[in-house]
Specification:
The protein contains 7 helices and no strands. It is mainly alpha-helical.
Length: 178
């Protein structure tokens, strides 16, 4: 800030630090959005078209980093996965992370009910149930992360991933009724 020249991104800085928010699962998304807009106003490459090539490049990389940090921290699922990543844990794509058969059966039944939904009201009802399950998972994941129970948080985030997929399918179904 003091030299009034955009610097290259600092190596190893967390998205939480970039976005000036607490490293917590339940963060204030309005504050996050406000910070995102502030940063983009000051770092956007259009503001540096008359500056040196190096400063333009730094502006582009900083702006891209801010975009990535914002998108990652905005949604609970990507935020939780990122928090696990910071602790050295990863959820592999395409694995069920040890999901039990009862949970998988429940998901199958929800998906079937959604496929068979003939009215927007029925699809919306499934959507509301899914939102409730996602809210419950958010509370459980936050508690697990606060206690440092990373394996529990990882299992809960895997469940959240399934419910987030159902939530997307509900949105698609509802748009199909329009």
């Amino acid at each position: 800030m003091s030299c009034k020249v955009v610097q290259p991104p600092e190596e190893g800085t967390t998205y939480f630090k970039i976005m000036d928010c607490d490293c917590t699962f339940t963060l204030d998304t309005q504050k996050l959005q406000k910070r995102y807009l502030e940063l983009q106003r000051s770092l956007h490459p259009d503001n540096f078209s008359q500056k040196s090539v190096k400063e333009q490049e730094n502006s582009e990389s900083q702006s891209a980093l801010v975009n990535k940090a914002y998108k990652t921290l905005l949604k609970p699922l990507s935020r939780g996965l990122y928090m696990l990543e910071l602790e050295g844990m990863h959820i592999e794509e395409g694995t069920d992370s040890g999901a039990d058969s009862a949970f998988l059966m429940e998901l199958m039944e929800i998906n079937e009910a959604l496929d068979e939904a003939q009215t927007p009201e029925k699809a919306n009802e499934i959507g509301q149930d899914t939102k409730g399950k996602l809210a419950d998972l958010t509370v459980q994941i936050d508690a697990a992360l606060r206690k440092g129970e990373l394996h529990t948080a990882k299992a809960l985030l895997a469940q959240m991933k399934y419910y987030a997929n159902i939530e997307e399918k509900v949105k698609e179904k509802l748009s199909g009724f329009m």
